[in-house]
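Key result, reporting period 2: structure in, sequence out.
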């Protein structure tokens, strides 16, 4: 098997050692061999990105447009192949994986357009004869650190705006899913990016990621991952006086009111909690249900779960793929035991399952009779595990939904305009969904949360400019 190498200063380089990228649907299937960078390689990549910044930051908008457009076009043209790679390395179902690949292509396409729309403002000064220009400038070298759950979309929504606005990049993907990231590096390189503008350093968080955190030469770090690592990114960034943007955990609520359309509510909750194996930061693991619909809802959701097939991600008919790896599977099963010991009732699932191929297969797991104080309601599990919390009425539902350290996405199923409107205004979350799953967002609008979920400006859409640029105000006499 070929070694997929790191991409540093315009060259493919080997790194210290390599890892096998393993398919969680079939642990006998090695997706590929990927090099691991050292801390020294990471510093070389940062130095290359720093050297490339002056020229790239002043490059013509047509050059940047063409490279981003070409990259988006190639990803779109190869959506089946890259979607298969994604499904193989991460374990989400093939249709979900192709959907994510298309989204990555759309993001590159969107930012190819944004390059051509870069604008500033001109204002008169309060003093006579003076004009003021306000422009956005790139910030410098950006460190990008991504998690394993969206192996192509999250890298795309950080890399595309970074390059669009004239920054250079050092990118470290999650160790579990280097395949899609390597493919992006290969495509960007062939699309004509100048040497050093984009660097891929694959490897361990504690080595490559840490070397990025320790560098004084990164002007910004954009990070998606766990709360613990996010705090390290924050602390190191304050020390180096650099910009940082964090997307971390969620414990997203989905409220179901008595007046909800039952089918809409069940579909939204099944999707929110269990699709993509519950491994989305926007997944819902707290289903907050008012007492008038509670029994009907539990029965209907349980029936729905019986119809969902857990199997190999590449198999036609699979609704839920495997858990990403053994460590995450242990976290999930530990939380299932915690839920039982806390007194929640296991209403569905909870068991490991075996399939034709050896993989990390877990039934979708539903608890009822949970309270919002239990650990399964407060801590992010990141697996196909959800708990139903019964509440009296809308007011209690809203208060329960907001009673969490997180605030990424918040959903409600209701036919009441009054409650939907009130919920949209009062949900303490960055994104609110009415009669829709908490997960599943568009690529052209802002993404991000509040409270413990996020820090810094929003990602995606035109709002991405906030993080990836800095504003300059210029005064001219005459
Ligand atoms: P998860 O539990 O989802 O894997 P992590 O926060 O551990 O979340 O991982 C998210 C990303 O952060 C990954 O690319 C990982 O390698 C990286 N990472 C982990 N530890 C560190 C660290 N000390 N410094 C920088 N990056 C890290």
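The corresponding designed sequence is given below.
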């Amino acid at each position: 098997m070929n070694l997929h190498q790191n991409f540093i200063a315009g060259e493919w380089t080997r790194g210290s050692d390599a890892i096998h990228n393993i398919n969680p649907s079939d642990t006998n299937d090695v997706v590929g061999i990927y090099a691991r960078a050292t801390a020294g390689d990471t510093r070389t990549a940062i130095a290359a990105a720093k050297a490339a910044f002056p020229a790239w930051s002043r490059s013509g908008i047509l050059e940047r447009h063409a490279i981003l457009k070409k990259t988006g076009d190639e990803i779109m043209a190869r959506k089946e192949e890259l979607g298969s790679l994604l499904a193989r390395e991460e374990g989400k179902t093939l249709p979900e994986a192709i959907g994510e690949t298309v989204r990555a292509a759309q993001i590159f396409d969107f930012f190819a357009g944004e390059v051509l729309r870069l604008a500033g403002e001109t204002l008169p000064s309060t003093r006579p004869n003076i004009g003021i220009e306000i422009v956005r400038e790139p910030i410098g070298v950006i460190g990008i650190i991504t998690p394993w759950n969206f192996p192509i979309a999250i890298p795309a929504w950080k890399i595309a705006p970074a390059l669009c606005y004239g920054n250079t990049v050092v990118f470290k993907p999650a160790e579990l899913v280097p395949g899609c990231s390597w493919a992006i590096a290969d495509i960007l390189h062939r699309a004509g990016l100048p040497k050093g503008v984009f660097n891929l350093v694959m490897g361990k968080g504690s080595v490559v990621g840490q070397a990025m955190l320790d560098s004084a030469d990164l002007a910004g770090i954009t990070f998606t991952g766990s709360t613990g690592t996010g705090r390290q990114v924050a602390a190191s960034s304050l020390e180096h006086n650099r910009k940082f943007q964090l997307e971390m955990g969620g414990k997203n609520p989905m409220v179901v009111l008595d007046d909800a359309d039952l089918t809409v509510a069940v579909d939204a909750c099944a999707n929110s909690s269990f699709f993509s194996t519950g491994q989305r930061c926007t997944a819902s693991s707290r289903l907050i249900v008012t007492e008038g619909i509670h029994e009907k809802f539990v029965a209907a959701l349980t029936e729905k779960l019986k119809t969902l097939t857990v199997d190999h991600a590449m198999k036609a008919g699979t609704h839920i793929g495997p858990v990403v790896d053994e460590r995450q599977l242990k976290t999930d099963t530990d939380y299932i035991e915690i839920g039982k010991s806390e007194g929640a009732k296991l209403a569905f699932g909870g068991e490991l399952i075996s399939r034709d191929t050896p993989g990390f297969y877990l039934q979708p797991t539903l608890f009822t009779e949970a309270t919002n104080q239990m650990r399964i309601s407060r801590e992010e599990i990141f697996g196909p595990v959800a708990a139903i919390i019964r509440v009296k009425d809308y007011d209690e539902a809203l208060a329960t939904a907001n009673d969490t350290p997180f605030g990424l996405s918040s959903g409600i199923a209701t036919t009441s305009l009054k409650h939907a409107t009130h919920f949209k205004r009062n949900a303490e979350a960055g994104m609110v969904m009415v009669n829709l799953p908490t997960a599943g967002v568009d690529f052209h609008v802002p993404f991000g949360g509040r409270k413990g979920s996020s820090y810094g400006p929003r990602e995606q859409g035109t709002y991405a400019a906030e993080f990836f640029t800095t504003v300059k105000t210029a005064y001219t006499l005459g």
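The mean pLDDT is 98. DSSP finds 15 helices and 21 strands in the chain. This case is discussed further under Risks and Mitigation.
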